[in-house]
Specification:
The structure is a homodimer. By secondary structure, chain A is an alpha/beta fold. Chain A contains 15 helices and 20 strands. In chain A, the strands form 4 sheets. In chain A, strands 1, 2, 3, 10, 11, 12, 13, 14 and 20 form a 9-stranded mixed beta sheet that branches. The longest helix of chain A has 18 residues, at 470-487. The first copy, chain A, is globular. Chain A binds chain B through residues 170, 173-176, 178-179, 207-211, 274, 304, 307-308, 310, 314, 316-318, 320-321, 324-325, 327-328, 330, 381-382, 385, 388, 421, 423-424, 426, 429-430, 437-440, 442-443, and chain B through 170, 173-176, 178-179, 207-211, 274, 304, 307-308, 310, 314, 316-318, 320-321, 324-325, 327-328, 330, 381-382, 385, 388, 421, 423-424, 426, 429-430, 437-440, 442-443.
């Protein structure tokens, strides 16, 4: 961190009473608060607590920080992202954090046209029109626009802090998104429209429409905004005023690394937490490398992983049953690195929507100076499950064949190719977010953020806004830290 | 075990080479096969392996065997069941096992009429008529009979070993049972019928219709039979030729105890398994009291609990994602013990179906000689979640008020009252069975029984027939043991 702003942030932490109350001997540590997980949620919580003068230990299972934000280094010191890549308007919390740590944003490359691909036919179109992200296909565009409008309207009736209290919650949580589409669009008779829906649900949720509760989907849309700007579907899928509008210099993980750097040896890597024991006046967190005695603990990992820690006493049934029913989505990111972003020469943004997989959506993830060309594709839901069973060679060929169809023959010969199957990432176990089928939010939703005595829950899945995004993670970390501070 | 048959079974085990290859020193053991879980699945697997001359260690987390079969001792040495209570025709595997261990069955008390209760109105009726379990309510009985017939017919098209291969699997796994009912009955306009459906889904699945995939529901029905007798819905809910037809003398757990007795010190209690490590020529199972080195391991616990063991190497994504989406149902059993089964004097079976909860269904669970009267009630799904938030006093009052409404004022004054909230049972975490929402079987079903190198899966949820029942558990134990024997 060379700049003044980052220096100031680090200096502020130095002034915090790091040692006061935070004592460590071999294998043991004592702190006011233990934080489980060094993704954006855990790091933000730790930061807020340290700034409030509290001693903190952050236990991270991996040998890196960032969680679902994970850089892939490119030759020459630039970075592409294996996971979280974008930020956008209304995501004030992650943007503010980045500013503090001197990580600057830049616009996602967005000049020219997008590609729409369907069954061998390739069209280019601008998303800078009133129809926005809806691709130019007369067999589906009217339906797509109508469905988006209707979902946005319904989402407007879902309270982001308690979707289960929406007046139609019981109806909406009794059906899948697929079923709602069958009753409210040409879904059941229009094969193309059906496939277009998957083009949206696979990247956004890592799921098929049949796996998603309608209520959960509406909540997710409602959460794609902030206190002043109601969420919209389009914001999940757009470089224009949407969640894909900007990127971070040096990659998203750089911000996580800078926070961790400022937190210094408060962050302990390679130390998965196995057991959390609550007792009369504190909580003991047993991790691989360190046993931490704290007053409170913030668990900031995906819900399904919270269920794999052993708790004593056992967690209440409400919490346990929520976690049993709140799985991570199924998502793979595949990326190719080229000498330069050649698609730009042909007036293309690097964004493609395709009814033919495995890659149903792509984005330009090149370094800001365009000195290299990087395009990545999302492979989600059913396509991801199919893809996983191919050989390494077949997978690469399938992805490059998609890229060629979207961007031309040069796409077939990248300098580098890499995939990240998030379902295989042991300490995430699926991306981009936890999904809920019918009945889960209605029956178990209230347990999402409810503390269990000295245990507080963070992670993007616990956020009321921008759940599933880095902004939600940062929000959740702040909220959990505030809860803890209220009790210290 | 006093009798000849049980003696013979035990003697056969004695002759098995118990010591051969099964060596134990403090905290360590070596065996051909380790079995995780001493419910019926694990015990049956161990039995089969020992009989085949293999050395076995069974690791059980609790301080008792039986899993979801758990006796509540009554004064005088009789037993009532906190969990699994009944067996019935087509459940040949559990029946055969019981015979071997000299545990005799007797008929569930079934003389007289059942009670149907709806909004203050109480009717009695015989289920020994062609309409069977359908209660005598003109506002719902035609619909109920039609729905049962239609579900049975559809279930006939579901292969029990691969429900995801049914020709309509994609359609059926894209919707909830609730949604199917809305399109195929008066469900959406008939409040009583809607509540009657819950009367069925709560005891059978511990769930509301909105939580269940239609495909999963149809599979469950298809599985309620055996190779010669196709499954039917009614068999899940009937003392007449159904899964509630017989009980075991001494309670269902008695059979588990006898098997465990025969297995002797091969069964290690109070030893939850934390970690399973596969290596080149074997597998090491780390449990609280014992580290077992084995050639193969059979994991015979509910799916969601298999996900809480740490595996090295990590389980494949297919398996992990199935387990993330296969939660246990929500079920509480509440029972009252009376001086005698007084309802029998009034010509009642002790069975009630009620549209008004918390208890939606009851059964007579008295000892075979009728020397005491025991009636238990199922509280499931939404009712269970409501019930859990009442005080102990309120819960008891609510249950006894139901019992009084069904069986008269004497029901209000039991000698004993006890509840078993299976969601709070740490080593089960929900009953009666794991449930699947839309999309789970289609995307992840094939992982249910698929071994992961040296790890084999058992438990009633892995059974093709009588999943959710003791018979399914026994079947699964035999199947897993056979898989292992093929590799030893």
């Amino acid at each position: 961190m060379g700049t003044a702003a980052a220096g100031a942030a680090a200096a502020a932490l130095e002034r915090a009473p790091l040692a006061a109350g935070s004592r460590r001997r071999s294998g043991h540590a004592r702190a006011d608060v233990a934080v489980v997980g060094a993704g954006f949620a855990g790091l933000t919580a730790a930061l807020k607590l340290v700034r409030a003068g509290r001693s903190v230990v952050v236990l991270e299972a991996r040998n890196r920080v960032g969680g679902r934000a994970w850089n892939h280094e490119l030759p020459g010191g630039e970075a592409s992202e294996r996971g979280a890549a974008f930020v956008g308007p209304t995501q004030n919390h992650i943007l503010h954090l980045a500013k503090q740590f001197d990580v600057h944003k830049f616009a996602t490359y967005d000049e020219g046209d997008n590609v729409y691909y369907a069954d061998g036919s390739r069209t280019t179109y601008s998303d800078k029109t009133p129809t926005g992200i809806v691709p130019p296909d007369p067999t589906i565009d009217v339906d797509a626009a109508a469905v988006v409008t209707q979902l946005d309207q319904m989402a407007g009736q879902v309270p982001v802090d308690a979707p289960w209290e929406a007046s139609s919650a019981s109806d909406w949580d009794g059906q899948t998104l697929k079923h709602w589409l069958e009753s409210n669009s040409s879904y059941s008779v229009n094969d193309r429209f059906r496939r277009l829906v998957a083009v949206a649900t696979r990247p956004i949720f890592g799921a098929e429409a049949r796996e998603l509760s309608l209520l959960y989907t509406l909540f997710y849309i409602a959460a794609s905004g902030n206190e002043r700007n109601p969420g919209t579907f389009e914001r999940n899928f757009s470089t224009r005023d949407g969640a894909q509008m900007w990127r971070f210099h040096g990659g998203t993980q750089r911000l996580a690394k800078r926070i961790a750097e400022a937190l210094g040896d408060r962050v302990v890597l390679r130390s998965p937490v196995r057991r959390i024991v609550q007792h009369g006046n504190g909580v003991t967190i047993h991790s691989r490398r360190l046993e931490v005695h704290a007053k409170r603990v913030i668990v900031a990992i995906p819900p399904t992983l919270t269920g794999r820690i052993h708790y004593h006493p056992a967690l209440p049934a409400e919490r346990d049953h929520l976690v049993q029913r709140f799985p991570q989505g199924t998502l793979i990111k595949a990326a190719a690195v080229y000498g330069r972003p050649f698609w730009r020469d042909h007036g293309l943004t690097g964004q493609a929507l395709s009814l033919n997989g495995p890659v149903n959506a792509t984005f330009d993830d090149s370094p800001p100076d365009g000195s290299k060309g990087v395009v990545f594709g999302f492979i989600g839901g059913h396509e991801a499950r199919r893809f996983r069973h191919m050989s390494k060679h077949e997978r690469r060929a399938a992805v490059l064949s998609n890229f060629e169809a979207y961007f031309g023959p040069r796409a077939r010969h990248p300098r580098d190719y890499f995939e990240t199957d998030w379902t295989k990432q042991r300490w995430t176990r699926g991306c981009p977010v936890a999904i809920a089928g019918p009945g889960t939010l209605l029956a178990h939703g209230p347990a999402i953020r409810k503390p269990v005595r000295r245990i507080h829950w963070a992670g993007t899945e616990t956020s009321t806004y921008w759940m599933g995004y880095m902004d939600g993670a940062v929000r959740s970390g702040k909220r959990a830290a505030a809860e803890v501070l209220d009790h210290l």
